[in-house]
Amino acid sequence: MIHRDVHLQDHDLRLEVFKLVAQVPKGKVSTYGAIAKALGDVAASRAVGMILSADRERPFSVPCHRVIYSDGRTGWYAGMGRGADRKRDMLRCEGVRVEDGRVADLDNAVFTDLTGSSMLARLAEAQGEVSSLVSQEGDAASFERLAGLDVSYRGDEAFAAMVVLDRRGNVLEERTARCRVSFPYVPGYLGFREMRPYTAVMGEPRKDTLYMIDGHGRAHPRQAGVACQFGVVHGVAAAGVAKTILSGVMKGDSLVLNGEVAGRLVRTREDRAYFASVGHMASLDSVSDLVSSLPQDPMIRAHRLATRERKAAHAATLPC
């Protein structure tokens, strides 16, 4: 059984990061990796750093200067390349010994009693449930309607687009939607950022449509990328059509993950390269053949439409 709300909710990961950092007392430090581990995935260390460096309003005091690198380097403060001296001075004023840009006696300086909700661990568990429900069977060529979905961002605002073509490349439908998204980009958790805008732009799910998602499906660390989430949660056929590799290694044209072929490098008639993978109810071979044979590329059309909507929204905010 799938818990739909988990996949369609706008999880506030930033708030969870702030709550963890606020626990670090004066005279102590934590690390980006330790914060990520408390969230449930140490691989999210970089995302933690991006959240803390962003210039945005916070609901309470967050002592970001107390978060450093795991090797003791104090790093920046208030953004990349800025505030290094200020951060070191703030730590020294709180009783932390800093020498040559690193926290001395790191083992004793690190605060180890972080407690949190392990949000990423819970989201990874939800992805595991999706993975167990994915069907890798089905013929992508049997669908007359082929929908390309993409999303573009301006800050926390998502501009989603869907362009539906028939097998001959004729445009059947174009849709756009916009919504605010709190969940930041974290590798391996893209679905929790993009499921809401994709769901908004889709409208009513259709069984006669193959939804081609700008992101991975089974070619994902937990075999449950955004294309799998979209297909399983909505009960529709879906395929991952990504621009870059997230996980695995290439062997020829095959993307191999955990000893299995999880994706394939394919090229459109316009020689545009994508990494295709199973989302739900369409096999890898049939998805790969379809993407390479289409007379028109629904993905690039959706990308351009989403970008156009974002630029139009930005232009509307500019002063006359």
Description:
- With 320 residues, this protein is α+β, with helices and mostly antiparallel strands.
- It has 2 domains: 4-121, Arc Repressor Mutant, subunit A (Orthogonal Bundle), CATH 1.10.10; 134-317, archaeoglobus fulgidus dsm 4304 fold, CATH 3.30.2170.
- Helices cover 35% and strands 22% of the residues.
- It is built from 11 helices and 13 strands.
- The chain has helices spanning 4-8, 13-21, 32-39, 45-53, 84-93, 106-109, 119-133, 191-202, 226-234, 284-293, 298-317; strands at 30-31, 67-68, 98-99, 102-103, 145-154, 157-165, 171-180, 209-213, 237-242, 249-251, 254-257, 260-267, 273-280.
- A 9-stranded mixed β-sheet has the order 7-6-5-8-9-13-12-11-10, with helices on both faces. A two-stranded parallel ribbon has the order 1-2. The protein has a two-stranded antiparallel sheet with strand order 3-4.
- Strand 11 and strand 12 (260-267) form a beta hairpin.
- Helix 7 (119-133) packs across helix 9 (226-234).
- The longest helix is centred in the C-terminal third of the chain and has 20 residues, at 298-317.
- The mean pLDDT is 95.
